[in-house]
Write a structure and sequence with these properties.
Blueprint lengths: L1 H16 L9 E8 L5 E8 L4 E13 L3 E6 L2 E6 L5 E20 L2 E21 L5 E8 L2 E2 L4 E2 L2 E8 L1
Antiparallel strand pairs: 1-2, 1-11, 2-3, 3-4, 3-5, 4-6, 5-6, 6-7, 7-8, 7-9, 8-11, 9-10
Length: 163
């Protein structure tokens, strides 16, 4: 009898203490206007837990004046998402490696080019809608950019797909 009772406890106890699985979309792909990519960025975001996520993005653009300025940004962020539903307060911290190059041209031929990498800090404080199942992702927030000398208040708006 004791052996049977012991076996029953071993079989039933795990089911009694098991919590229901918390389901949420773990990946997202989105386009951000302004934000950490400066003008825009294309981003992939992965949630490691329901509240912790990381993101990597990419942006490349050219500003044409007398000389062409080419800029590449790679936003790298770690984010905390509050709440357990579809709507979240998003708080994040990260870095943005930036490559800038300046090239001069004369009648369509490149005369010279100079480039350099820099790394700036960034943060996020905003609202994030990410459905628990597949669907539309929306983000809006303040995304300051800073280094050891100065800080610039910035903002961003994102739209994408969570899966």
């Amino acid at each position: 009898m004791k052996k049977t009772l012991f076996m029953l406890v071993l079989l039933v106890a795990p089911a009694a203490v098991a919590q229901p699985a918390s389901h949420y979309t773990q990946n997202a792909f989105y386009f951000e206007v302004l934000g950490q990519g400066l003008l825009y960025s294309v981003n992939f975001d992965h949630r490691f837990t329901e509240n912790i996520a990381a993101r990597v993005g990419f942006s490349s653009f050219i500003i044409e004046f007398i000389s062409d300025v080419s800029i590449i940004t790679i936003p790298l962020m770690v984010e905390y998402l509050s709440g357990h539903g579809d709507s979240h307060l998003e708080v994040g911290l990260g870095i943005v490696p930036i490559h800038g190059s300046l090239s001069t041209s004369f009648f369509g031929t490149t005369e010279g080019s100079v480039g350099a990498w820099a790394v700036i800090g960034t943060a996020t404080l905003g609202y994030r809608y990410q459905p628990r199942t597949e669907g539309l992702l929306f983000r809006i927030g303040v995304t300051p950019l800073f280094d050891s000398r100065a800080a610039q208040i910035w903002g961003g708006l994102s739209l994408g797909y969570a899966f």
